[in-house]
Amino acid sequence: MAQFSESDILAAKRRVQEMQSRAAKFTEQEKNENKGNQKNEKTDKKETSFMPPEEKEEEQDKSFFIILALILLLSKEGADNTLILALLYLLL
């Protein structure tokens, strides 16, 4: 088992504290952004909730062909069958 000196342990603790403070700043910033976004979501929902059926179909068609092409490429390369089956499931 590896032996760690006291300075190694103190350095590791310092790095942990730094990462925790960075994470705390990030989550605080994210919370503040979410509060602002929640106010805007109410007004944005009316604008973005409606998508004409033609656009929905076009978007589905594009993803269908991309996934289908990916399946064909992976099957020719001898990829794992479970991956191919998972991609086929996405086409349903």
Query: Count of helical segments?
Result: 3
Secondary structure tally: strands = 0
Give the termini distance in whole angstroms: 51 Å
In round numbers, the mean pLDDT is 77
> Approximately how much helix is present in the residues?
over 70%
Strand content: under 5%
Unreliable segments of 5+ consecutive residues: none
The major beta sheet can be summarized as:
none
Category by helix and strand content = mainly alpha
Shape: flat
What integer value in Å does the Rg equal?
24 Å
The string of secondary-structure elements, in order, is HHH
Structural account:
By secondary structure, this protein is mainly α. It is built from three helices and no strands. It is flat and about 60 Å long. The mean pLDDT is about 75.
What is the compact description of this entry?
The chain has 92 residues and is mostly helical.
Helix and strand arrangement:
Blueprint: H1 6-48, H2 53-77, H3 81-91
Helix pairs in contact: 2-3
Q: What would the keywords be for this entry?
A:
92 residues, mainly alpha
